[in-house]
Amino acid sequence: MDSRALLRRQLDKRLEGMTREQPPTGGWIRAIRTALGMTMAQLGRRLEVSAPGIADLERREASGSITVAKLRSAADALGCDLVVAFVPRVPLAEMLQRQAVRKAAQENSRILHTMKLENQHHGVALSPDQTRSVAQRIAKRGSGLWD
């Protein structure tokens, strides 16, 4: 097994329990601050910014225009850890296989087009097994798979 396959398996296993949580309306900073009974001025003192600065921070988080560094500072001031993760929608191995199949279909289409231009296309098509075989070869290309 190559190192990339091992890395994919390890990442899939590590990420399998993670979910894509929707942030609360108004963002996590506001939700945690409010749940703790902390005012904007109190959080502002911890972050050395004004209460209007906290309102701006909360607005930027809710709009998605805040930096990770600011989120990390706010989390720390609220006694929280910031967790930022990419959670794949499907297992990484499946994502790779899907891309390889798409790439195989593209290559098959180009070959078929060339054969049509040369009038050699009659009865030519890849079976599902042949497509999978091509996809497996393509998957071994590494980064070339994503071109």
The SSE order reads HHHHHHH
| SS elements, strand count | 0
Secondary-structure content class: mainly alpha
What is the overall silhouette? elongated
Strand content is under 5%
Helix content: 55-70%
The average pLDDT is 83
Largest sheet: none
The protein's oligomeric status is single chain
Rg from alpha-carbon coordinates: 25 Å
Uncertain stretches of 5 or more adjacent residues: none
Distance between the termini: 24 Å
Number of helices, counting only DSSP H or I runs of 4 residues or more: 7
How does this model look, in words?
The mean pLDDT is 83. The protein starts with a helix and ends in an 8-residue tail after the last helix. It has seven helices and no strands. The protein has 147 residues and is mostly helical. It has helices spanning 3-15, 28-35, 40-47, 51-63, 68-77, 92-117, 128-139. The protein is elongated, with a radius of gyration of 25 Å. Helix 3 crosses helix 4 (51-63) and helix 6 (92-117) crosses helix 7.
